[in-house]
């Protein structure tokens, strides 16, 4: 694979938080690891500058086949790196056609910022938007450790535990090596935004999952009790599946589907690292999974987190508010799939509770999809009233839409997200209990800030399989 395609794939993986830069570089199988690593690092460093230059030069509008991550890597090398030299393949002539325009946009940016060297653009940089203030959320994987032990491990590493946050203000004020327990989710630790834990031994050993708070809510709100059967309809790369397994305590069954073989392969690695043993993975189109298949006759819980525009993902909100805005055609296609998937999920005969989530902020992929599926279910399902104290609610586009949750860097200090919980109108009592437990997640008492030393978390590798 040419270095540019490899770098684009790694960059996309890092931005969608599929792994650490280093891990993805090694997983790419690209021979010259050093060259690839340097190219991605530098492209990332100039990310905001490159986004601005590419957008202002209209490169992606003019070259429809050029994907954004590849464009970024190529433009980095053309304008700021070593130049293509003998590299670049078929992209070289294409980029060279736009070279003058791209150079002019870079020059214009420097004039606007009042700097003369490329390097100086980094120092001035675009003003950090609210997305860059989203803290680093860390979910403790209770299949492998517990919150107290994880907290103790960080304390021994010189981090200062500030106790449980009482609200967003505590989280906003976090800095340096301080960390908190989330006010809502009892297994979620919160660190300052710039904390990078991808190389942390507890993360490498699967004791910690680096997962945004909003993305932890779907499994927490589905709240399947241990022993139950759950379906994860669009599951890869598997962060929510591993969360479901932790809630099930590995007891019961998760049927996880995804139609992307590559993503499923990294999901298998993630699940093994997280100690998940109750999950059956299948490379399959969820729309083709039959509701009358006897294997699924006990499935009462479905998590549906389908492909979406990703317009709520923080990395896309940094510089160009328009950069994450999908075209109307793409939105229509996505929404059509999402609605088919949701309506299909609601036809599983034993289903009692379903969580629909996206990392999109577009009404078309969220409230509109839920409204259409509810209408199609002819009153068999309704929106469950969840987390009444959550500050950001669904857009009031239909009666009851306020039961949906939205999330954003500005309102909840998370990525942009949408969640709806649908429940069957007639619910048997066991599910009512789960529903009641999840309607206002009440964390167990937070581990206190203590001086006393506690038993160490097993150093990764010392207790294999734990
Ligand atoms: C937003 S991602 C899921 C993220 C995942 N829930 C997690 O938390 O890690 C959407 C996934 O849906 C998968 N997908 C898209 N269409 C599908 C289909 N028809 N059947 C099954 N999976 C599908 C994509 O391959 C992608 O991996």
Automatic annotation (TrEMBL):
Compositionally biased region (Basic residues): 447-456
GO terms of molecular function: RNA binding; rRNA (cytosine-C5-)-methyltransferase activity
The keyword Phosphoprotein belongs to this UniProt entry's keyword annotation: yes
InterPro entries: MeTrfase_RsmB-F_NOP2_cat, MeTrfase_RsmB-F_NOP2_dom, NSUN5_7_fdxn-like, NSUN5_RCM1_N, RCMT, SAM-dependent_MTases_sf
CC annotations in GO: nucleolus; nucleoplasm
GO BP terms, alphabetized: cerebral cortex development; cognition; corpus callosum development; oligodendrocyte development; positive regulation of translation; regulation of myelination; rRNA base methylation
Region (Disordered): 433-466
Domain of life: Eukaryota
Active-site feature positions: 359
Domain spans labelled SAM-dependent MTase RsmB/NOP-type: 126-425
Protein name as it appears in the record: 28S rRNA (cytosine-C(5))-methyltransferase
Organism of origin: Moschus moschiferus (Siberian musk deer)
Upper lineage: Eukaryota, Metazoa, Chordata, Craniata, Vertebrata
